[in-house]
Amino acid sequence: MRALIFERRGLDNLVVRDVPSPTVDSGQVKLRIVLAGVNPVDLMAVESLPVSPLPHIPGSEFFGIVEEVGKEVTHVSPGDRVAVYTRLFDGTCESCLRGDQTYCIQGKRIGVESQGGYAEEIVIPSRNVIRSNLPDEILASLPIASLTPYHALRSVGVGPDDTVVVIGASGNTGIFAIQLAKMMGAKVIAISSKPWVKEMGADVVTDYNGAEGTIRELTEGKMGSVVLNSLGEKYWDLGLRLVGNHGKIISFGSLTGGKVQLDMNRIYSKHVSIVGTNRGNMGEFIDLERIAGNLKVKTWKVFDLDEGKDALLALRDGNRDGRIFIKVS
Ligand SMILES: [Zn+2]
């Protein structure tokens, strides 16, 4: 099968090569991968994260069609389209038994600590897949781009009384954060310079320069009850200014850097909570798949497997205007 693979770190070492097709064990499924998403974690896997095994196939977000199943597999069959929960978990440790698969003691991220989805085929445990007939680009956005904000919003119990401020609203997770927060009944203020963000259903879209004043006016000074900052350092100060009394700042990404200065006066005087979240668990993934039929995605570019390096580089393109995908087969 063809795979996008690298032996040594660095985008220049990423090449398409024919590698042996993986074999299926009794509890596993082999998928023919259709479409894969491109996320910061994939770029980091090629450039800086410790990955295994080597040579390594990146790709942390994708979906596929079942090609072959192991003899113990009963819940999916060859030909099924499946959504893929892209974190490996053993199902037996205490975290797993409590439903917290994100923190499985034996857990691994597909595409980082195990071979990923930028390849024509992948073999993974059958417990990681569920049947789904969602559209291609939604299925390829479930494992990271939408599960991450879904878990984040659920973990602070977002509901109709909330005003959710989404920083980085045109980004991979921002697009879905807007839609999911709306589905949970919240008022959503999206911060972005892109006009199309309004189509994702935000009540108000404001640019970065006008954000503080606009939100102050809209909320009559109360500001956001929940502020999502998936971009990190560059917008940390802004996030602190936009959160109201008893508000929560959620962080699940650090594309602009992860080191910030913390003015404790601003934290305690407003009774602010800072909440770190990380992807989501299997139960949330199943719930998300059920409600994802109404989600929209904004696609910017679709690359072929041969153009993997360009696809990853496009993440850093200042003109990026929506999601980037790799069409695998
Ligand atoms: Zn476990």
Secondary-structure element string: EEEHEEEHEEEHHEHEEHEHEHEHEHE
Question: What is the CATH-assigned architecture of the largest domain?
Answer: Alpha-Beta Complex
Bulk shape: globular
What is the CATH class name of the largest domain?
A: Alpha Beta
Alpha carbon gyration radius: 20 Å
Please count the helical segments. 10
Helix share, percent: 10-25%
Which ligands are bound? zinc ion
- Mean pLDDT across the residues is 97
Question: Largest sheet, if any?
Answer: 7 strands, mixed
Indicate how many domains the architecture comprises.
2
> Segments where pLDDT lies below 50 for 5+ residues?
none
Task: Please report the distance between the alpha carbons of the first and last residues.
Answer: 11 Å
CATH superfamily of the largest domain: Medium-chain alcohol dehydrogenases, catalytic domain
Structural class per helix/strand content?
A: alpha/beta
CATH topology of the largest domain, what is it called? Quinone Oxidoreductase, Chain A, domain 1
Report the count of strand segments.
17
Keywords: Carbohydrate metabolism, Metal-binding, NADP, Oxidoreductase, Zinc
InterPro entries: ADH-like_C, ADH-like_N, ER, GroES-like_sf, NAD(P)-bd_dom_sf, Zn_alcohol_dh
Protein name: Alcohol dehydrogenase
Domain Enoyl reductase (ER): 9-326
Structure, described:
The chain is of the alpha/beta class and 329 residues long. It has two domains: 2-141 and 297-327, Quinone Oxidoreductase, Chain A, domain 1 (Alpha-Beta Complex), CATH 3.90.180; 146-276, NAD(P)-binding Rossmann-like Domain (Rossmann fold), CATH 3.40.50. Helices cover 24% and strands 26% of the residues. The strands form four sheets. Strands 3, 4, 5, 8, 9, 16 and 17 form a seven-stranded mixed beta sheet that branches. The longest helix is centred in the middle third of the chain and has 14 residues, at 142-155. The model has no long low-confidence stretch (mean pLDDT 97). The structure holds zinc ion. The site of zinc ion has 8 residues, from helix 2. It holds the Pfam family ADH_zinc_N. GO terms for molecular function: adenyl nucleotide binding; anion binding; metal ion binding; oxidoreductase activity, acting on the CH-OH group of donors, NAD or NADP as acceptor. Keywords: Carbohydrate metabolism, Metal-binding, NADP, Oxidoreductase, Zinc.
